[in-house]
Amino acid sequence: MDDISLLREFPIFARVGDADVRAFAALLKESRAAAGTDIMAEGDSGSSMHFLVEGTVDIIKTTPFGDRFVCATFTAAMHCVFGEMALMDNDRRSATVRARTDCRTLYVEREDFDAFTAARPLAGVELLKFIGVNLVRNIRKENENLALVYQALIEEIEGR
Amino acid sequence: MDDISLLREFPIFARVGDADVRAFAALLKESRAAAGTDIMAEGDSGSSMHFLVEGTVDIIKTTPFGDRFVCATFTAAMHCVFGEMALMDNDRRSATVRARTDCRTLYVEREDFDAFTAARPLAGVELLKFIGVNLVRNIRKENENLALVYQALIEEIEGR
């Protein structure tokens, strides 16, 4: 399967036409990671969004005490993107993405993404809305996690 | 000052041209809230993003134990938008926005926002990127809050 057919499977392109997907594909670079190595590392500066096209990855976060835990596992069949926050700001990666098996990703750099949304704004609107929906889902999940940990803290303090 | 001049002051329009701001302004509806009343309520379904053009609001959240706390206060001079998550999904409001003084907001409904981004996609890309940057900032803040509360919980459990 060629990369354009692979990309078509990603929900982020559901409302994007073939010509726009081809133009987007032309901007992508390829990255390979051997099993056990990091595709991106929490705390690093980042500027790219990745499409997982082969393999399985663990999303790993670090607690304030330095303990690491796997908060999600994605396979290529799930057609996930990650690193999309880096398209919005210059800040640090919020999690490590580690190859659980040998992996291949296709990735877009922020400046290429910005050039694409300027040249093909209707497609750009669709990509940005998809990313926005993902970000909102993450905020709602974080809100739930915060409520759970806060509740546990108060119960621990008060012996409720 | 007319509403278009007011809107021009909002950073969300920094990279949007005058004609696009005028077209956007034509979609906006007005809402007034007396001091002490809610502009939106946590848990309600929402479909609009608001521009605070007059007054001061408190952003209020509820803990899992039902306690309410003010997590931010915004004045019209800060040119803030709120409720932008509702442009991305159909889910519930994540916080209450309460008028601390008499307030006036201008708001856009999701279906009008979608029509705008379809009709003026270059401006749509700029608005969506601005919203995306805001959402990412919120995620990073939530991550910090989660780490702080988690750390307090572990210290409480272990007596560190």
Q: In total, how many beta strands of chain A?
A: 8
Structural class assignment of chain A = alpha+beta
β-strand percent of chain A reads 25-35%
> Number of helical runs of chain A?
4
Would you tell me the overall average pLDDT of chain A? 93
Order of strands across the widest beta sheet of chain A? 1-8-3-6
- Chain pair with largest interface: A-B, 40 and 40 residues
Estimated helix fraction of chain A: 25-40%
Question: What is the distance, rounded to the nearest whole angstrom, between the alpha carbons of the first and last residues of chain A?
Answer: 57 Å
Largest sheet geometry of chain A? 4 strands, antiparallel
Taking all Cα atoms into account, the compactness measure Rg of chain A is 17 Å
N-to-C series of helices and strands of chain A: HHEEEEEEEEHH
Residue stretches of chain A low in confidence (pLDDT < 50, at least 5 long) are: none
Tertiary shape of chain A: globular
Quaternary structure type: homodimer
